[in-house]
Design brief:
Rossmann fold, 8 strands, elongated, N-(1-d-carboxylethyl)-l-norvaline Dehydrogenase, domain 2, 14% strand, homodimer, alpha/beta, 8-stranded mixed sheet
Chain lengths: 255, 255
């Protein structure tokens, strides 16, 4: 397919590379920031533009991959070209695009992307949605060309997924940070914990998390929890987090 | 080495297998529960006993791998044999054993173990401690025979590691559970989130967690956070956790 990428952030960067690797032609990369547009366009052999007036109309699809709060204004501006428009946002309903076009869709990659790290896109769940049947079929094919996991997910379900992803990704990463800070305060190497973090994530690839919960809270081991709280003495934030999550785990163990 | 394993839980099971695989002879496995002793002993070609009177004295080392609150009574009972005694606990100081023997040590594998899942022991950080220099050398060699990561860690540091491990492992696993429950309530497949969980853990293998934090809180995206709280409406526990961790991430972003 001939695709125009609107945006140059983390998702646009990884998606653009995956599209190119799958043999699609990214015609243009648009970004308000010319440097960002050039950088991504260079890597995926596209043309960089930073003005919507320069849009090349020889394209099959606009993919809007920008911050949630500017999706709508871009969709509005692009709708004059009468091409299908999709966004890549977990939190934005399809309806936001449908105001501007009948050929509206969503292509939501359920993954965390950082510019510094390669991602195996074949393993990234692609959640697609389109009201138009032709576009739905097109998105299924497009998603299948870059990933082995393609799911039909409606806007309500996508909101739930986006929320659940915060619990599965953003919050655990913060807790990794907390553990790293605890070690750093005592001149201990974060490498000591890295294998544990890997194994914890590996375990739930085949098991349900509730089946592999370990630690003092699930054993309701009050002595160890009290000792941990003593060590946290003076750190109110981590003390509150420790208590709250331990209570939740104790409750889960009794459920 | 000729080793006697006191205990048959998750740690004893994985450690016993790693010792056998490295060419050591596990002489006996002791457990109060005869079935547990037999099961582990069978797998690592040891003798199973459930009575301390049957201890074979032709051994070089007792490894006590049991619940923290029974370590001391076992150390007391075993001390009559005048053999080196080590435990595998993160939360128990060396001094607990030193009351009973001059040849006391610790061999703490910093990993989460479940009986249902194999672990690559070569990657497990082994934290060792001994006051006796000869035993310290022995433990270094023993740990190096089963793992590529051996660290000298004293009792104070080990307490800190054990606390940090709760933040790096037990709490993230609970949050995986929370995300799985959110999906289940909406008939969504947990497989949708599994690649995200893997990638989140993978990212911090090379980066610091603070450098790869993503999600609405680190962007201070109030609109998305408000939408998530609306979706959590009625679930007080997850609402409290969402607010607390989001505030901590916002604070981290401003630090």
């Amino acid at each position: 397919m001939r695709i125009t990428l609107i945006g140059s952030g983390n998702v646009a960067t990884h998606l653009g590379a995956a599209l190119k690797n799958a043999g699609h032609q990214v015609v243009q990369v648009y970004s308000r920031n010319a440097d960002h547009a050039v950088l991504l366009a260079y890597h995926i052999k596209a043309e960089a533009i930073c003005n919507l007036a320069e849009i090349n109309l020889d394209t099959d699809l606009f993919i809007i991959s920008v911050k949630d709060d500017v999706i709508e204004e871009l969709a509005s501006a692009l709708s004059v070209h009468q091409k299908p428009i999709v966004h890549t946002s977990g939190a934005t309903p399809l309806a936001t695009l449908q105001t501007y076009t009948n050929k509206a869709g969503v292509l939501y990659p359920l993954q965390t992307f950082s510019k510094t790290k390669e991602v195996n896109f074949k393993a990234v769940p692609m959640c697609i949605e389109a009201a138009d049947q032709g576009l739905d079929e097109t998105l299924k094919q497009l998603a299948s060309s870059i990933s082995n996991s393609v799911y039909a997910v409606n806007s309500e379900q996508r909101k739930i997924l986006h929320l659940a992803a915060v619990f599965a990704c953003n919050f655990p990463n913060y807790l990794y940070h907390a553990s790293q800070q605890i070690l750093a305060q005592h001149q201990l190497d974060f490498n000591l914990l890295r294998p544990l973090i890997s194994e914890t994530a590996d375990k739930v690839q085949e098991h349900l998390p509730s089946a592999v919960q370990t630690g003092p809270a699930i054993r309701d081991d009050k002595k160890t929890m009290a000792a941990h709280l003593t060590l946290l003495n003076g750190n109110d934030e981590l003390t509150t987090i420790y208590n709250l999550l331990s209570q939740a785990i104790i409750k889960m163990g009794k459920a």
